[in-house]
Amino acid sequence: MSYDVIVIGSGPGGYVAAIRAAQLGMKTAIIEKYASLGGTCLNVGCIPSKALLDSSEHFHNAKNHFAEHGIEAQIQLDMVQMIARKTEVVKQNVSGIDFLMKKNKIDVYHGWASFKDDHTVQVKGAQETIEISGSKIIIATGSKPAVPASFNYDKKRVITSTEALNIDQLPKRMVIIGGGVIGLELGSVFARLGTEVEVVEYLDKIIATMDQDLSKELLRVLKKLGIKFHLGHQVTGVKATSREVTVDVKKREGDETFRLKADYCLVAIGRRPYTEGLALENAGLATDEKGRIPVNEQLQTAKSHIYAIGDVVRGAMLAHKAEEEGVLVAETIAGQQPHIHYHLIPGVVYTWPEVASVGYTEQECKEKGWPYKTGKFPYKALGRARASMDTEGFVKIITNAETDEVLGVHIIGARAADLIQEATAVMEYRGSAEDIARMSHPHPTYSEAMKEAALNVDGRSIHI
Fold it and tell me: 3-class DSSP state for residue 333?
């Protein structure tokens, strides 16, 4: 069978690329090695983790805050039901992707894809192996958790995010290696449910790539939740038995060592591109020192008719970044001239409160020597935040001191993930803090914090 476009991988980047290619009139096929479409994000990443995050927030609020609302209840945790609900959410989303493939007349192949040559892909399924050819091929195979061999990853006591999403008995203690997005999101889930959580982070701060003010505030909030942090420490060994796990820790600078014991050790030190088994060499392709497939600005590989998107190429490993790249490639193949502003792709940490950021951090502005100003507004000064008992956090806006153009927006607080899109839209059109300040924001809402922070750039906030 011959196609205009073959997409390898059905995660957010892959399935979106396939749909856009089909919309543009191209005969399209998509290959997925697992039984269900959607990739890591839908099956063992973004969607199931958000389902558990939401469930844990409900439990925590019911246990700790309902009485203040005049609601009396006996609260009991049912982890089995919580996991069952998460599984149902995943199933619904996966079935949605199945529907979209049929709607757009995209041929779906389940099996292991590998290149036979630069136009031919072999698909090894459960029953048979077939070959399909494509004029254009898009590699969208994603990433997988990075786990050093010395951590003795056994998927039982030493786990990654994949296994953590299926724990149906509440652990008493959990050690998390890594103070980044994945570790903190899952750590906050279990901490809210009652697990004693300890985080070991090599650097001196958490969420290290985000604005330092966000890092400091999130650290304070998570400590308040009960999570213990060992910053500036490294893990020297992990050993597991059938009942517990032991984690050996050493201070990064110094001789101090200690040992942590827990029911589980969650390894969350990052992810690496997943290209194993693709036989890239048969297509004349290779990976770089980090396992990524090199691409140009149009996401073309060394073979101009083969593209790569998402986690297998440079840049942030984000589902929405992969989606944008999928659209870009499909439209490029169709002869259009799309673009992506990579520094305007927002990043979000789905703890509670949520953390969201777009554009440049204050530290980056300093390093670049740019003249800048900042404006901040605390959630505790918002009527809506007080009404909802979500007063932790703030909005921080960074602008060019000479032109007032918004350079970066950094939010920690309730619904930060939704609020950040206003900032992204303003920055996409090179708007100013004054533009935000002059727009009417509905009252009472969390979005008013954006307006007030914009006003605060010039010291004009109304409510502080």
Answer: helix
